[in-house]
Specification:
Residues 8-382 form the FAD-dependent oxidoreductase 2 FAD-binding domain. The protein has helices at 15-24, 60-70, 77-97, 133-147, 213-220, 251-254, 280-294, 308-314, 316-324, 380-397, 419-436, 443-460, 471-492, 520-527; strands at 2-11, 30-33, 50-51, 115-116, 126-127, 151-154, 158-164, 170-176, 182-192, 225-226, 231-238, 258-260, 299-302, 334-343, 346-348, 360-362, 367-368, 517-518. By secondary structure, the protein is of the alpha/beta class. Strands 1, 2, 6, 7, 8, 9 and 16 form a seven-stranded mixed sheet that branches. Strands 17-15-10-18 form a four-stranded mixed sheet. A four-stranded antiparallel sheet has the order 11-14-13-12, covered by helices on one side. Helix 12 runs antiparallel to helix 13 (471-492).
């Protein structure tokens, strides 16, 4: 069925999608597709905080410089400066909405709210709500969204593809409801806030991570993707094979947590002068190397020396979760392991979220703005979500509707693909990505991944020509093709840079590094085996 015509259609209701809805709704009617449960998005699970220049001891130039260093030469300087300069006003906006950031009542506090420090930052500039910042921001924004009369929420629809016209413009999205019925939501402007691609891997820091579905929906319509090879692995996910994914915030190291091996010895000071506060790519590789050297499946993060009062004050969520899993972090070090966490690449956008497809925007982790370069610095992600949501909102407030165009039809199929087969292919894909395209990649491993993914693709592709769409099937279809593009980008980058580390080419290859860009034509070439 066709569900009328919508002015602004936002797909994804994490922090980026919610913030955008609020920015636009006073000027245009907004339709927001978001899961009924906040647990399904990555935003809720963000613990650390939001990076911004707020302290009198900090300044814009320092935040810009730290971000450029972390991005290992691949950041877009214009995007970095734009984002950092918008930071203070963005935090003020959140405060006016009522986000309950943790106050700082100490006598020498230079700012009313507590600021912590995380890896790569040269100053304390991370404002937070205890150790559950994502949850606090999501809940606050959601309350305002639900109260706004010009925002229509849809929790029962899942987007499976975008609607294009014969001019190459985006005209909305095709969705499925819980019963599998197809709905076509035509829209004047469509925004993807669908998250990243950590779900391509077996072990992640989010219980239900996205697998790049929005990225591939955009690519199918002709949008350019960028820097897919830069997948960030958070150094410290709780090692708990029997439990759900759970992140141990970077702020734990920012407040003095130490990484130790099974013998209780620190290993980071020998790797980098910043030790535990080195950027995430360096820490994750060091942990991976330590695990390989000792044959262990984890290392430890030790905060016992901080004392029970400080641990309970700064990390109540982490303390409570670990206690629920039988771990007393006041008296025991925390077992941790790196896990897929954040996609630095995504849909190429400008400073207002516009993609290379007219009337299609992307914000949040689905987008690649150029801010992160080859490695995202801690807590710049929520900042990016908010800054670009507000920037995109300002553009969409005044966007003029275009003349109606006829959307291109969607082929209708007759056969079904069994859920068991879908899960088998998905697990095989994740296994390949986790063993061959993770923290350390080799030429041989990437070749094996490319061959393995091609085999999986040819198992699934023939059935997609005459299939009845389902959410699990279309999600797998998007994920499998994005995995192939990710491997193609990794194989093409003949150097090691940031999150892309290949011991077969261990140094920087170019004095002037370039982002990797890939489009639908490259995807079609891969699928045709050319």
């Amino acid at each position: 069925m066709t569900d009328g015509k919508h002015e602004v259609l936002i797909i994804g209701g994490g922090i980026a999608g919610l913030a955008l809805a609020l920015e636009v709704a006073d000027h245009r009617r907004v339709t927001l597709l978001r899961p009924e449960s906040d647990d399904q998005g990555a935003s809720r699970w963000a613990q650390g905080g939001i990076a911004a220049v707020l302290s009198p001891q900090d300044d814009i130039e320092a935040h810009v410089a730290d971000t450029l260093v972390a991005g290992d030469g691949l950041c877009d300087p214009q995007a970095v400066r734009f984002t950092v300069e918008q930071g203070p006003s963005t935090i003020e906006w959140l405060l006016t909405l009522g986000v309950p950031f943790t106050p700082d009542a100490s006598a020498d506090a230079g700012y009313p709210y507590h600021l912590t420090r995380e890896g790569g930052h040269g100053a304390r500039r991370i404002i937070h709500a205890d150790d559950a910042t994502g949850r606090a921001v999501v809940e606050t924004l959601r309350q305002h969204v639900e109260a706004h009369p010009n925002i229509r929420l849809h929790g029962e629809l899942t987007a499976i593809g975008l609607i294009g016209d014969n001019e190459g413009h985006c005209r909305g999205a095709r969705c499925l409801d819980a019963a599998g019925r197809l709905h076509e939501l035509t829209a004047e402007d469509t925004v993807l806030a669908t998250g990243g691609a950590s779900g391509l891997y077996r072990h992640t820091t989010s219980p239900q991570p996205a697998s790049g579905e929005g990225m591939m929906m955009a690519a199918e319509l002709g949008a350019e993707l960028m820097n897919l090879e830069f997948q960030q692995f958070h150094p410290t996910c709780l090692y708990d094979p029997q439990g759900p994914a759970f992140l141990i915030s970077e702020a734990v190291r920012g407040e003095g947590g130490l990484l130790i091996d099974a013998a209780g010895e620190r290993f980071m000071p020998a790797v980098d002068p910043r030790a535990e506060l080195a950027p995430r790519d360096i820490v994750a590789r060091a942990i991976d190397a330590q695990m390989q050297r000792t044959g262990s499946d984890h290392v430890y993060l030790d905060i016992r020396h901080l004392g029970e009062a400080a641990i309970r004050l700064h990390f109540p969520t982490i303390h409570a979760h670990c206690a629920s899993r039988g771990l007393d972090i006041v008296h025991q070090p925390i077992p941790v392991v790196p896990a897929a966490h954040y996609s630095c690449g995504g849909i190429t956008t400008d400073l207002a979220g516009a993609t290379t497809v007219p009337r299609l925007h992307a914000i949040g982790e689905a987008a690649c703005t150029g801010l992160h370069g080859a490695n995202r610095m801690a807590s710049n992600s929520l900042l990016e979500c908010l800054v670009y949501a507000r920037s995109c909102g300002r553009r969409l407030r005044t966007a003029q509707a275009e003349p109606n165009a006829t959307p291109l039809p969607m082929p209708r199929g007759e056969q079904r693909v069994a859920l068991e087969r879908i899960e088998q292919i998905r697990e095989a894909m994740r296994q390949l990505m986790s063993t061959r395209v993770a923290i350390v990649r080799t030429d041989q491993g990437l070749e094996e991944a490319a061959c393995g993914l091609e085999t999986l693709y040819h198992r699934l592709a023939p059935q997609m020509k005459d299939v009845i769409p389902s959410v699990p099937l279309t999600n797998l279809w998007h994920a499998l093709r994005l995995a192939r593009l990710t491997v193609a980008c990794a194989r093409a980058r003949r150097e090691s840079r940031g999150l892309h580390y290949n011991p077969d080419c261990p140094t920087h290859g170019d004095a002037f590094p370039q982002p990797s860009r890939i489009t639908l034509r490259a995807l079609e070439d891969l699928e045709e085996g050319t």
